[in-house]
Each structure stands twice: as C-alpha cells, then as structure tokens.
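About this split. The held-out portion is used to measure sequence recovery: a designer receives only the structure tokens and must propose an amino acid at every position. Recovery is the fraction of positions where the proposal matches the reference. Here is one held-out target exactly as it appears in the evaluation file.
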C-alpha cells in the first residue's frame, strides 16, 4: 500500500467508527504486514480529534506469531473513551452490527515519560515506568464485524480493536503480588473465565516492556499519566448489546454494568 492507500483506508475506518455502525467487511485495502497495519493505525490517530490517553496490549494468536514475528500488538486508547469507575453500574459500549468483547485486565498507570529513542526494554527494566496498577475492563470493539476472523493486522489497523477502558480500584502500587490477584468475568450471570497476572505470557512486566518498545517505535512513547491495558486475564469474550457484565478482582468490589449501543462520535 502506498501512502495514498494508507490514508484512504484510515479515513474509511475513521468514518465507520464515527458513525458507530457495523460493517460486514474491512473498508479499504487490508494491510498485508505489520508495518502497513501500524501505518494505517498511525494515520487514523493523526486524524482523530481526541488525544491518545493510553495503549491497549493484546495477544497475537499463537498460530500467527511466527509469521508476524511478534506475540503482541498495540492499539491507541483515546481520552474520551477512558472512564473511571465510580461504583455505579456501568454502560459499556458496543458498536451495533460490529464486534464487541469484554476483557478483565490490569491497567497500569504510567509513572514517568519514556524515552523516545529506546526500543529495547526488557521486563526487568520497566519498574520505574509503572505507577499504580488498577483493576479494569477493556471493551474491545470495532465497526468491522469480522475483525477477529480477519486477524491481528485488521485489528491493529482499526484502532487496535479498542473502544473503551474502564479504570477500577487500585490493586497494587507496583508489579509485585499481581500473581495472587485473580479476576473473573461473568456475562448474563454465567462465569465465562478466570485468571491472574501469571496468565499473561511473561506476566505484566513483559506486557509493559512491549508497550514501551512498541509505542516508541511508533513515535508515540509512553507519557506520565497514560494508561496501559496489559492483556486479557480471563479471555476475550464476545458480547452484544443488552447483556449484563460483572468483573470481579480479588479483594475489591465487583464492577458491574450492561452493554449499550455505542453513540456516533461528534
């Protein structure tokens, strides 16, 4: 894809997300490699009116890791989509006719600005960048209904397949002890998955190292105060409009809510 095609695909994805209406196919050309997928994502970020307030980190399906040369990918989280949980029932957005999923995740508050010229962080070196760790919910979401079938390149290009982050209570001041904090996701009264920090390959520290390296590579190094959603602890659970959700973490009050139709962007 040349730059014109990249910009056209980004514009089509922006229009679909703004309209909050699902599409049966990927609008524009489907990227064929990581560099192109991230180029489309970057073009869309540049045209979106809200600033980036954080990043979601997600797994690449194991069967595709070798072909893509990565275990994870990153996507932007926009300021307008970050919600602090107040204890009241949540309204969780799903794009009508698109794709929606709910995920229990650890949300890391970035403590200090990351360097723009370093892309070789290891898990042992991320501590200084980790502020408080919170329980949270990622609403994965996309106007492209078959995004999961199309694969991670489609997800990367289309805003990283993220629609919202809900920031719940603090569970730790750093990365120590997260293995003992368990999460459970319940949909319509049925438990659909449990897990804890060690369920993430390499743990939360490895996810943070990836976030530091990936965002710097994209020219958007992590900034103090941003959030990193570090990966699904209990699985990725597809969900439609009008369903009830309960996300419980060890030792804190459960977050509950209902999925509602996402509203068109202004």
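Reference sequence for scoring:
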């Amino acid at each position: 894809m040349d730059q014109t095609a990249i910009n056209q695909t980004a514009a089509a994805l922006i229009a679909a997300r703004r309209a909050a209406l699902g599409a049966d196919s990927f609008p524009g050309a489907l990227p064929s490699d990581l560099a192109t997928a991230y180029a489309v994502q970057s073009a869309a970020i540049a045209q979106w009116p809200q600033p980036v307030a954080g990043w979601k980190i997600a797994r690449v399906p194991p069967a595709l890791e070798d072909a893509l040369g990565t275990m994870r990918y990153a996507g932007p989280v926009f300021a307008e989509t970050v919600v602090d949980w107040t204890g009241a029932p949540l309204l969780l957005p799903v794009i009508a006719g698109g794709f929606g999923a709910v995920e229990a995740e650890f949300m890391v508050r970035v403590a200090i600005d990351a360097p723009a010229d370093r892309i070789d962080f290891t898990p042992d070196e991320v501590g200084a960048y980790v502020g408080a760790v919170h329980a949270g919910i990622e609403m994965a979401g996309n106007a492209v209904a078959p995004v999961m079938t199309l694969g991670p390149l489609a997800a990367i290009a289309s805003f990283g397949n993220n629609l919202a982050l809900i920031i719940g209570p603090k569970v730790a001041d750093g990365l120590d002890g997260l293995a003992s904090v368990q999460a459970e996701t319940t949909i319509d009264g049925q438990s659909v998955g449990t897990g804890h920090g060690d369920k993430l390959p390499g743990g939360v520290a490895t996810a943070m190292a990836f976030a530091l390296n990936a965002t710097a590579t994209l020219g958007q190094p992590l900034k103090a105060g941003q959030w990193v959603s570090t990966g699904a602890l209990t699985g990725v659970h597809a969900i439609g409009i009008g369903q009830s959700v309960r996300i419980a973490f060890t030792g804190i009050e459960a977050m509950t809510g209902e999925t509602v139709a996402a509203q068109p962007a202004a």
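Annotator remark: Residues 100 and 158 are 13 Å apart (CA to CA).
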